[in-house]
Each structure stands twice: as structure tokens, then as C-alpha cells.
Amino acid sequence: MRPLSGFDLIRPRTLVGALEALATLEEAVPIAGGTDLIALYRDVGGKASHLVDLSQIPELGGIVEEGNNVIIGPTTTHAQLLASEVVAKRVPALHDAVKVIGSVQVRNMATVGGNLCNASPAADTAPPLLVHGAEAQVSSLEDTRWVPLVDFFKGPKMTILEPDELLTGLRVQVTAGCSSFQRLGRRRGFTLSVVNSATYLERYGDKVREARIAFGSVAPTPIRVPKAEVELKGKALTESLIEKVAKECTGLVSPINDVRGTAEYRRDMTAVLARRALREAWTRSGGVLK
User: Fold this and answer.
1) Is the N end or the C end of the chain the one with fewer CB atoms within 10 Å?
2) Helices 239-250, 263-284: crossing angle, 10 deg rounding
3) What are the pLDDT digits (tens) for 69-114?
4) In whole angstroms, what is the distance from residue 254 CA to residue 266 CA?
5) How much is the pLDDT for 1?
6) CATH code of domain 178-284
7) Dihedral in degrees, nearest 10, Cα atoms 146, 229, 68, 126
8) What residues contact residue 24 under an 8 Å CB cut-off, 6+ apart?
């Protein structure tokens, strides 16, 4: 195994220290679990002169309920998300997703912030957080702001973060709905999703009050599909409506061919996963399909 070299490792103990390092050091890059970044640098090389380790900063980790929100720190590992009763109850699709991300060893190291900031179109934590309406806290030495997570991604491996900025928090509003995450990979685990999907539904009686559907690995970024979502609102959820919406989703994505799957296969599987996620989210909400 080729060792990594050519950079200094900076280990600040405070958020201000980390932001100062990013703002003042040349070619400084943040690192948390390193499961994406280290592999990238080892395989293809990197330009970072300084790696700023975020793992020693307490306020960047953890999961708490604050009022009507769940706040998730970006250095929270996938294993911690999986073990969290708050996540299982309040953000079930995210809990679904971290069950199937990587191996036990990877889940113990990989972080939710790293998965999002890596900005892979196939990031498994993105669709669950998108359907739960998550917001991202972006911080620099001069400013802190909250932005909708859907606006956080700019393209493959690209986010809105400037070189001196960090993702410092995720905020999910607690609501009455239920959600589900589904994915397809070339094997059961330890692989990127060929397609993934999440659905969020709020039910009143036998009708849908609110609906959100998101996909990964079918566009340059993880996406929501509002045109399909609006077809569900105010209607009784039936198998025929699920079929209609699932088919509509195939026309709202723009997949590509790559080594993991063809565009045609991804488009077809978009409908399959939409059906599965809609059914499971509805069942979790206590609804009965007709």
C-alpha cells in the first residue's frame, strides 16, 4: 500500500481554529473520517498541502433534538446515526440508508458531513435528508448561514462551499410524516448505489397531505422531483396512483452510462425504487393501500 505524503496534518480543537486554518493556510482541505478523501489521494493524488482534521472538535459531532428540530453534527459517523433512536424515529429514511453504507469498519469512520461534502451523485445519505427537508449550516470566520440542502450541491463532486467554509450542521424539522430509503447496487453492500431513492409521506386519513421524492445516481447531483410529488398531494394513495407516479419519475431524471450501470437501466430502476419507497413510507405511516 502506497503511503500518503506531502502534506501537514492540522488537528484543531475548536471550530474557530479549524476555520482559521482553512482561511490562512495554503491549499488546506478539511478531513473527517477520510474514507473518501484518503482513498482519492492514494489512488489519484491530491494537491492539499494541509489536511485540517475535524474529528477533535466536539461541537461538530452528535445528534440532538432542539425544539422542533433534529440537529446532526457533520462529523457524526454512520455508525452513530445507525445507533440513534432519534434518527430511527424522526428521520427513518436516513436510518435505512446508513444500514447499507459500506462495511462495519467504514460506518465506524465515515461521517454524514463527509458523505455530503464529497458530493457524489450516488451519496446514500443525500436523498433521505432531501425528502426530510434538511438544511445545511455553512460557516466561515465571517459568517454562518443555513441553506436548503437541495441547494448545497452544484454538480458531481461540487458543493457551494468556498475554500474557507465548512459544513457545520444539519437541521431536520420534526414532522408527522414517515419515510423510506431504497437502493440498488451491484452487490448487497460495500458498493456505490447504481440508483437510490427516498420518499417522505404525510397522511391524513387515506389521503396524502405532503409528499417528497428524491433520487441519487440519476443526475449530476442528488435531486428532488416536485412534478411527481404534486401528483400525490391531496389524493388517496392507491396502487394505480403509485404506478402512475413511478412512471412519471422516469421522465424526470437524466442518468448516464458508466461502469456501474446503463442510463436505460437506471431510468427503469427509478420507477422500481419509487414504487418500493412509496409503499413502505405509506405503510409506516399507518396507511393501507387500495
Assistant:
1) N
2) 150
3) 999 999 999 999 999 999 999 999 999 999 999 889 889 999 999 9
4) 9
5) 46
6) 3.30.390.50
7) -50
8) none
CA distances from 122 to 24, 75, 97 (A): 32, 20, 12
Set of cell numbers at residue 162: 468556498
pLDDT for residue 188 is more than 60: no
Pick from 35-49, 99-113, 233-247, 267-281: least confident: 35-49
Contact (Cβ atoms closer than 8 angstroms) between residue 178 and residue 284: yes
Rg (CA), the chain: 19
Domain residue limits, the chain: 8-53, 58-173, 178-284
Which grid coordinates belong to 60?
Answer: 461538530
- Cell 445516481 -> residue: 217
- Residue 166 has what pLDDT? 98
> Where would I find the beta strands (DSSP E) of 174-267?
178-185, 193-204, 207-216, 223-224
The fold of the 58-173 domain, in CATH, is 3.30.465
Residue 259: band (very low, low, confident or very high) from pLDDT cuts 50, 70, 90: confident
**Inter-axis angle of helices 263-284 and 92-99, nearest 10:** 130
DSSP-derived pairing of the beta strands 8-10 and 50-53: parallel
